[in-house]
Write a structure and sequence with these properties.
The structure holds two protein chains of two kinds. Chain A is an all-alpha fold. Helix content of chain A is 80%, strand content 0%. In chain B, the strands form three sheets. Chain B has a six-stranded mixed β-sheet, sandwiched between helices. A four-stranded antiparallel β-sheet of chain B has the order 11-12-10-13.
């Protein structure tokens, strides 16, 4: 167990640029942007489109930046997996790690787990710091625009906890949902290194194209079974049209309701199947790594 | 040529019929050898002779045909478990460059059960390698010192070094081998080393293996080498007579003829000129130019 934790820590040390330093820079930029918003008419606009109180401004802002951080996280993880699975070869450190008493499966599993735990946790931490920034911006907004109602601190805290809880659950479920995609690009990276990025899309694209051009797809879904499956598999979470009325409703954000809707909307057989596929891909990649010449 | 005696205890390394193919090309042609505990072995051969492939097979880094046992285990199937008792340097540039020295030691403490951080720090005392230094900022010589400190801090039964001093200057190379002998080698430990600079490690070897085109052409203890092979600086008037004894190698340089003999008594050779034991590099050159020794 110690060695697995140490290997996960190694991933943090190797990739902290994308998951610690870059978010820190983004936070600084966000601070500047939020301070700048105090001197624009954004608060008037927010008031006019349905944020009658500083609390609603905070909630909408928190959920908005959570969405942005989630997009950043998923993109960063895609590139992380495309890099990490072949990083030891690229860094010419493969022989050193092969001299350690850890299996290739454990090494690759640690990379997979790092992308599912410590690295997203860093982004989640940045997200919480952003919430603090938005809180102070909302408070300052009540000074700029006195008609914005100023709620008590407890209401802010309650709202922050609700949203942070919802975002945490949504992120965890999203990571589990997309795990097979990450394992796919990681496994490709083990063999094809940086070419895994285009190949991750090219291979399923070609399979889908072959299905459409070579096989008789009469009666099947539009675009063929493969592309239809991928389209459904790429989608995660509730529809935006369902979310907006809930977010802009007069009452405070209710995490329990939102999590319930999120969980109910997930195809759990797909989720479990995806995790099994992810495990098999990591295992196959580790066998390739074990059998390929070390350099 | 093999003077292996039957060893009463199980050897640290044992290979029988070790073959390796890359595509249709056979790189190793069925090597048979044992390496007993407590010895310092030199594996010497030209570029492409099969040294690194042999070591890779012993370390479980590549598949092979035949039977290989390291500490009683199949290295290809049990590499990870084996690495608790086997340490190796296959490339001095292979340390993870993104880490600081301190971070490397902290990770190894948790990853390798036989790594002793205090020992590693001790080995770095008196060197220019600082704990806060980033590995990517260290010179090649400093990285070699760091890598050696890492493997010497691992309590291993077998240490394998594949060209560990490649690209280092003479000062670092001498310091590297002196450190290895003084601070690491014990009777319980076995060292297997390959290098092109054979003369630099000759003093420390107990056994030597020459490999040529995937075949072992020499495998013997160093004491046997000195009793079996002789080099004679033949006087000009004795060249024809000396040639009649069938030297395995002859070279004339600056008017002097040096001949290497295999298995000819030194008393017989003394009449032709000064008799010495050939250096490993002289012997290597001699044996690379003839068929497998009888």
């Amino acid at each position: 167990m110690n060695s697995l934790v140490a290997l996960i820590k190694r991933e943090y040390l190797e990739h902290r640029g994308a998951f610690l330093y870059a978010p820190a820079v983004i936070l600084i930029v966000l601070t500047v942007i939020l301070i700048g918003s105090l001197f624009s008419n954004r608060f008037h606009m927010a008031y006019e489109v349905g944020a009658p109180s500083a609390l609603k401004f905070f909630e909408v802002g928190f959920l908005g930046v959570s969405m942005l951080w989630a997009i950043y996280l998923l993109a960063a993880l895609f590139f992380y997996y495309a890099d990490a699975f072949s990083a030891d070869r690229r860094n010419n450190a493969m022989l050193f790690w092969k001299s350690m008493p850890v299996t290739d499966f454990k090494v690759l599993a640690s990379k997979m787990l790092a992308g599912m735990t410590i690295l997203p946790a860093l982004i989640y931490g940045a997200l919480l710091l952003t919430a603090v920034l938005i809180y102070f911006t909302a408070l300052a907004g009540t000074l700029v625009l006195p008609q914005l109602a100023l709620p008590g601190i407890l209401e802010f805290v309650s709202s922050a906890v609700q949203i942070a809880g919802y975002v945490l659950v949504a992120l965890v479920l999203a990571l589990l949902w997309y795990a097979p995609f990450f394992a796919w690009v990681g496994a490709l990276s083990t063999v094809f290194r940086r070419w895994s990025i285009p190949l991750a899309f090219l291979i399923p694209g070609l399979v889908g194209l072959a299905e459409n051009l070579v096989l008789d797809n009469a009666g099947g879904p539009r675009g063929g079974y493969v592309l239809d499956f991928l389209r459904r598999r790429f989608h995660f979470g509730p529809d935006e049209r369902d979310l907006m009325p809930t977010i802009f409703a007069d009452g405070p954000f209710n995490a329990t309701t939102m999590i319930g809707r999120l969980v109910a909307g997930i195809d759990w057989s797909q989720m479990v199947g995806g995790l099994i596929v992810a495990s098999l891909l990591v295992y196959a990649a580790s066998e390739y790594r074990r059998r390929s010449l070390a350099t | 040529m093999n003077d292996l005696a039957q060893t009463p205890v199980a050897p640290i390394v044992s290979a029988r019929g070790l073959r390796k193919h890359f595509g249709r090309t056979e790189i190793l042609h069925g090597l048979d050898f044992d390496i007993p505990a407590g010895r310092i072995y030199g594996l010497v051969g030209h570029n492409g002779a099969g040294k690194t492939t042999t070591l890779n097979a012993l370390l479980g880094l590549t598949s092979y045909e035949g039977t290989v046992r390291v500490l009683g285990e199949d290295p290809y199937q049990k590499r990870a478990a084996l690495m608790k008792n086997v340490a190796f340097i296959s490339d001095v540039a292979s340390l993870p460059r993104f880490l600081r020295v301190r971070e490397l030691f902290a990770l190894l403490t948790n990853i390798h059960p036989n790594f002793d951080q205090a020992k590693a720090r001790g080995f770095l005392d008196g060197t220019d390698v600082k704990m806060e230094a980033r590995i990517k900022n260290l010179s090649k010589g400093m990285i070699a010192q760091l890598h050696l400190a890492v493997v010497m801090a691992i309590d291993a039964k077998l240490l394998v070094l594949d060209e560990p001093t490649l690209g280092l200057d003479i000062t670092y190379r001498k310091r590297f081998y002196r450190r290895l002998l003084e601070d690491y080698m014990t009777e319980e430990r076995t060292l297997l080393i390959t290098t092109h600079q054979v003369d630099e490690i000759e003093f420390m070897l107990s056994d030597i293996m020459f490999i040529r085109d995937g075949d072992l052409i020499l495998h013997m203890q160093m004491e046997t080498v000195s009793s079996k092979f002789s080099q004679v600086l033949v006087r000009p008037d004795q060249v024809a007579a000396a040639m009649a004894l069938g030297p395995i190698y002859s070279e004339t340089r600056f008017g002097q003829t040096a001949m290497v003999f295999d298995g000819v008594e030194r008393e017989r050779l003394a009449q032709f000129g000064e008799v010495t034991t050939p250096t490993l590099s002289d012997l290597f050159v001699a044996l690379m130019q003839r068929g497998p020794a009888k």
